Amino acid sequence: MTSVRGRWLVAGSIDGEILRLDESLSFWGGFDAASGCVVDRAHPQCGSRLTGKVVTMPGSRGSSGTPGVLGEAIRLGTAPAALIISHADINIVAGALTAETLYGATCPVLLVDTAVLDGLCSGDSVQAGEGSVS
Amino acid sequence: MNTRPTVPKSVVSSSTTGALVLLDCEERWLRGEAGAAMKLAMQLVLAAAEVSEVTEMVPVEMAHINSCHYSGVMSLDFAEFLLADRVSFAVPTHTNASLISCSTPHLRPEDRSPVEVQGARRVMEIYEALGCTPMWTCAPYQQPDGRAKLGQHLIGSESNAVGFANSVLGARTNKYGDLLDVAGALVGRVPLAGLHTDAGRRATHVFDVSDIPSATRTDPTFPHLLGVVLGRAVGHGVGAIVGYESEREDDLKAIAAAAAAAGGVGLFHVVGSTPEAPTLENVTRGQTPSDHTIVTADHLAEAAAVLTNASADEPLRAVCLGTPHFSVAECVETLDRLDGRRIAPSVTMLVTTSRAVAAELELRGLRNEFSEAGVDLVLDTCSYFPPHPSGLDGLTLTNSAKWAYYAPGLLGVPVGFESLERCVESAVAGRWIR
Questions:
Q1: How distant is the Cα of A112 from the closest Cα of chain B, in angstroms?
Q2: Which of A104, B6, B22, B320 has its CA 20 to 30 A from that of B99?
């Protein structure tokens, strides 16, 4: 069990199994909210199902459509359990915060140093304590 | 409209960025005293400050939002949530293009895509009911009310409109994604970050086109290709173009749209043309740019290759013009090139534009000329969005790098990129004239 510390961009707690994405993912166009799977054919983890996993990735490639796709996955229950990223992008944060208000469910987002991210491997268990942001 | 007190009151602590000073009303909104929607708006704006690690906010004077473009269930749920609280926007707020067209409902028939078409209609109704200006265009800068001024801060969302506002008008905006665009327009302030700041607007990459022959530089496809070259090289940085003379606004629009599609560019400067760039030194701000590209014919050929994935022997099915929305000048040029001829019956030709441009064409007695030529003047929307527009079922020509960049992925059609002249001649002939 690995315990990580970072800065919460969307408050919550993390306790689950890691699924590591080696490259940034654009949820819009790269992720199917209905199935919870990566569908970007250029992505190394194309086909991986993110549902319920603690997904680690360098960041999210931001696009206007990203909040809607992540929010839809949260609504449908196909979203990751949490995201651990080393580069922040407002669009995933906006999607997760809005889903929390609209649907009462969210996807916590923890920002960590690159070195911390590099130490996290698929299949490991990871924990991060409850936190809140201003 | 919300009134915005100017006396700062509260200080919100932020884990990395020290302190952010909130206005009285913002403090109340954050506490939820004005309802759940304003609370969420404040949360989103503060999250944006947290992500960009800044502690200063800047008031904006207008907004052009994309959240009014139906993009799935959450976009509709969010709109209904805003309506339930009867929120009012702090600044004049203009709507980006929709999924559906008031002029051309058969473009995306309701019986074929009922969820999307009904969702889009409802989302449009809601944002109009909330007091947005119903421009439904990706080119708000073609209308006086949607045209930001030099130095004004605004909220932009659609990528070409962000590039145009920053580059051609010298206004200041980041590219705001869905939800945050509305949140910022409700609050009336955004984090002072990125392209809102002087430092963020400094040119990092010079593109010198002086070696390109003049005949190439004045070809109408040149600004599109240059935009692709710039976008692919500079990514999210800021480019400065040297050696380019055109001050035609539609050429600068083409660069903005192509650079944003190819690389996420939100600002470029054209030395001698755009308002912040009387000289190169003005935009490099005394620093040496990190990259310097001498643009060559090879660069342009590579860009052109990216934009055409069709082979010449395929039968021509469609011609799509108007991405970004055609200006009055571009519509008039299209009619001039048609010169009273009808397009071939086997071809669907769409010209997308705004209600405002169509009204101007109507006043000039020109709007009917499109239908007489067999061309659909399509308002409110764009032809590369899914659901798949009717008639786009094979080789499609366009004069827009942006359209050519997105349509193969979004619509699955083979695309040829050509000048406006060749697009029109091909539509009339019923085959791709190369």
A1: 12
A2: A104
Q: Which fold has domain B8-196?
A: Aconitase; domain 3 (3.30.499)
Type and span of the H or E element at B255: helix B249-263
pLDDT at B10: 52
Residue located via tokens 């048609």: B338
Q: Is residue B262 a contact partner of residue B223, using CB atoms and an 8 Å limit? A: no
Q: Do B74 and A66 touch (CB under 8 A)?
A: no
Taking one residue from A and the other from B, the number of pairs with CB-CB distance under 8 angstroms is 93
B12 interaction partners in chain A (CB closer than 8 Å): 134
Q: Which of A7, A75, A83, A98 to mutate to test the interface with B (most CBs of B within 10 A)?
A: A98
In 3D, which of B195, B182, B203 has the Cα closest to residue B44? B182
pLDDT tens figures, B29-54: 999 999 999 999 999 999 999 999 99
Residue A22 neighbours by CB distance under 10 Å: 12
In which element (H, E) is residue B236 found?
Answer: none
Tell me which residue in A62, A91, A102 faces B74 most closely, judged by beta carbons: A102
Q: Which tokens belong to A127?
A: 């924990």
Contact assessment for residue B98 and residue B127, using Cβ atoms and an 8 Å cutoff: no
Helix H or strand E encompassing B53: none
Which is catalytic among the residues A63, A122, A132, A134? A63
The residue assigned the tokens 């939820």 is B32
Pick the CATH number of A2-129 from 3.90.1150.10, 3.40.50.720, 3.50.30.10, 3.90.660.10: 3.50.30.10
Q: Do A69 and B72 touch (CB under 8 A)?
A: yes
- Series of mean pLDDT values for 10-residue runs along chain A (134 residues): 92 96 89 94 93 92 82 97 93 96 96 95 93 52
Contact status of A128 with chain B (Cβ, < 8 Å)? no
Where is average pLDDT lowest: B5-14, B17-26, B61-70, B276-285?
A: B5-14
Question: Chain A residues with CB inside 8 Å of B36's CB?
Answer: 101
Tokens of A12: 């919550």
Fold category of B308-429 in CATH = Aconitase; domain 3 (3.30.499)
Find out whether A91 and B181 touch, Cβ atoms under 8 Å. Answer: no
* Helices B401-411/B222-234 angle, 10° precision: 70
Give residue B308's identity as a one-letter amino acid code: T
